[in-house]
Amino acid sequence: MLVIPGPADAQSDLTIELGASQIGPALDVNGESARFGIAGVRASHHTSGGSGIFASVLFGRALESRSEGTFLSGLLEGRLADHWGSKVEGRLEARLLGHGMEDPFPYRAFAAEGGPVLRYRESNLSVELAGVGGIGRSELTLWRLEDGPTRLFENELWRGGATLEVLFGPVTSQFGLVGGWHDTPSGSYESVGARAVFAGRWGITELRADRWITPFSTDVVAGLSVMIPIGSAWNVRGFFGRSDPDPLTLARPGTASGGVLVGVNLLPSSDPALDRSVYEVVRFEAGRSRVRFTLEAPVESRRVELLGDFNLWEPVTMEKKDGVWQVELEVPAGTHHFGFLVDDEWYLPDDAPDVVPDEWGRLSATLVIEGAS
Length: 373
What we know:
Layout: E1 10-23, E2 34-47, E3 52-62, E4 70-84, E5 88-101, E6 107-122, E7 125-143, E8 150-168, E9 173-184, E10 187-200, E11 203-213, E12 218-230, E13 234-241, E14 257-265, E15 279-285, E16 288-295, E17 304-308, E18 316-317, E19 319-321, E20 324-332, E21 334-342, E22 345-347, E23 356-357, E24 363-369
Antiparallel strand pairs: 1-2, 1-14, 2-3, 3-4, 4-5, 5-6, 6-7, 7-8, 8-9, 9-10, 10-11, 11-12, 12-13, 13-14, 15-16, 16-20, 17-18, 17-21, 19-20, 21-22, 21-24, 23-24
C-alpha cells in the first residue's frame, strides 16, 4: 500500500519566474528560431518520502516586432511513493499537460499520462524502471490565404511503453545509461542515451545525450539543464540544447534552443544551514571526525536508523536516550549526504541541514567535514 507521511514531513513552495528563451524550429521545418519573453508560476507540495504534487503555468510572448507569437503551457503532476526498506521505492505517477498557441497559427494539445515506477538504490547504484501510458488530443488550424478557407487537423493521441535508467555513483555525482520504448499511432519510438547528474548545495546540473529512432527519422539530441539556488528564496534555471521528440504529442525534435528563468519563492523556509541540531562534530581528527547524530522522531516510533554515503547507505541503528535518538560515527573529511529511516520509512526533520533533492524523489541532508582544526 502506498503511504503518504504526515504533514510534519511536508515542504511547500510557490515560485514566480521571469525569463527569456530561444526556440528553434523542428528539424523538418524550414524556419527561423523564435525568441520569447516568459513569465510563469510553479507550485509544489511534497514529503520527504517522495510523495507530492507539482503544478506550473508558463506564458510566452514573441520578442521580435515582426512576430506576434504567443503560447500558454500548463502541467499538473502528482506522485504517491512508498519505501520497502532502505533500498527499494515504489511510486505511482500521473501528469496532465496542455499547450495552446494562437499566433502565428492556432494550435492546442491536451494529454494525460502516467504509470508505475520501481526504483532500487544502494550506495553507488540506482536502477529505475517505469511504465507509462497516455492519451491526448491535438488541434491545428491552418489557412492558405488571408481571409481564405481554413482547415482543421485533429489527432487522437496515445502511447504506451517503458523506460529504464541505470546510474552509478553517489547522489552528488551520478553517471549512467537510459533507454526507452514507446508504441504510438504512428509507430514505435526507441531511445538510448547517457546521463550525468551533479548535485550539491550549489544546485543541480544534468547533461544528457540520446539517440532516437522514430517512425520519421533517426536523430541525436543533447542538452544541459541547470538549477542554482541563490539564498533561501531565489533560484536560476536554465536549459540549452535540442529538445527530445515526444511520443505522445508526436512532436519532432527541435534545433538548438535555450532559455533562462529567474525565480523567487514566496514561501521560503529558513536557511537550514543556520541550524545544525541534527548533527554535532564531537571530535576532530586528521582526515576523519567523530560525529554525533541526533533526531527527535515521532513519539510512537519503534526503530530509527541513520544511513548516508559515509557508510555506503547501510542503516545504522540509533539508540533512544531521554526521548531523543542518537548515534555516533566516524565520518571522513568531505561533503556527505544522509537521512533517517523511522520504522522503515525515509524521514528528514524540518531542521535538516542543506537539503538536496534526489532527482524528484526523496530528499537528503548535507554534512560537511572540513578536516582537522
